[in-house]
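An instance as discussed:

___
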Amino acid sequence: MQLKPQDFLVALKLVAWGDQRWTYARLAQELGLSASEAHAAVKRGIQAGLLVDAALLAPPPASVPGVQESPSIYRVRAKPRRAAAGEASGADNPARVNSRNLAEFAVHGAKYAFAADRLPVAVGVPTSHSAPAFAGVFAPGSEDWVWPHPNGTARGQGLEPLHPSAPFAAMQDAKLYEMLALFDALRVGRARERGMALKRLPLLIYPDGPKPEERPMHG
């Protein structure tokens, strides 16, 4: 089993949704994927440990006074229930994000698994430090990066997106857009931009995780 770019895109979309209810049909529609692609991406995400099969999750035990448990830690059922006929395709929340694993993969593995490809200068959707979420964060003069797209509004150095449908999906969801732009900052940004992404991206994916260490940034 080898992870594909759409598997990472699906996992980030589930992070963006948080506790919202979702179905494969909605996931496919909002990401511009086919239903079969959405199913396959979730299946590979579960196999890789980036997602958790909801059928294997049991409700947390009754809380004990003075003891708190992170909401991103799940307990596994000893015997998963059997899905009713037709339930697999229409059930709400078929999987949940394994926040710890996904955050680790996002900052330490994904940029190598899905390496960046530079494209010619083009008009497109701003990404990396050029994305709207980072307006005013960086001083003018940094090279602008864009995903080439017919509905784009900016001109800059072209960058192949994580997946062909990523620009469409990003324009529908501000949080997903921010995470994809941060991922691109890890792939093509300078030291300061990478440093910001290394701090911000894991916190968006795994807010209850350990806080990144402060490191001096150069460049």
Q: What stands out?
A: The first helix runs from residue 5 to 17. The mean pLDDT is 84.
